[in-house]
Amino acid sequence: MGGVARVKVITCKIKVSKSTTRKIELGSYMNDKVFEIWQRKREQGFLSWLFKSTLGAVAFYLVFSIVFQYSTVSEQGVPAFFQSQASNFALFTLLMLIGNGVLWLYREASFKKEARRRNIL
Questions:
Q1: CA distance 3 to 39
Q2: Which residue has the higher pLDDT, 20 or 88?
Q3: Does the pLDDT value for residue 17 go beyond 80?
Q4: Which of 49, 51, 45, 42 is nearest to 110 (CA)?
């Protein structure tokens, strides 16, 4: 039992200058640049991409939590600070793993849909 998926296309006209107007269709297709970038990233594989993306987000969170929160507990010392924040770091890591996994699935589905539209797959 097959069906036809319909995509709602929103057309916007943007005035670039006094005499030039650009027409943009939103929701219709994947941008060429985004398509090529994802094509390269998917060659890494799911687990490699998931690990790198999550590690980058966790490192970013770790650095900024130290910068903005350490000064409030600096008299207790670094080990006490990390013990108090351990549950936050673990929860953030778990949520980023789940979030990045869902993001991979979404991007992969968009990529495959666009590849079929371009007759690549």
A1: 27
A2: 88
A3: no
A4: 42
Q: Angle CA(119)–CA(53)–CA(82) in degrees, nearest 5?
A: 165
d(CA 12, CA 14): 6
Please check the confidence at residue 107 and state whether its pLDDT lies above 90.
yes
> E strands along the chain, which residues?
10-15, 21-26
Q: 């980023």: which residue's tokens? A: 96
HSE-CB of 63 using CA atoms within 13 angstroms:
6
- H/E stretch holding 59 reads helix 46-69
CA atoms within 13 A on the CB side of 16: 6
Residue 82 is which amino acid? F
CA–CA separation, 111 and 38 (whole Å): 7
At a CB cut-off of 8 Å and minimum separation 6, what does 80 contact? 73
User: Could you report the per-residue pLDDT of 65-98, keeping only the tens digit for each?
Assistant: 888 887 766 677 778 888 888 999 999 999 999 9
Phi and psi torsions of 85, nearest 5°: -100, 0
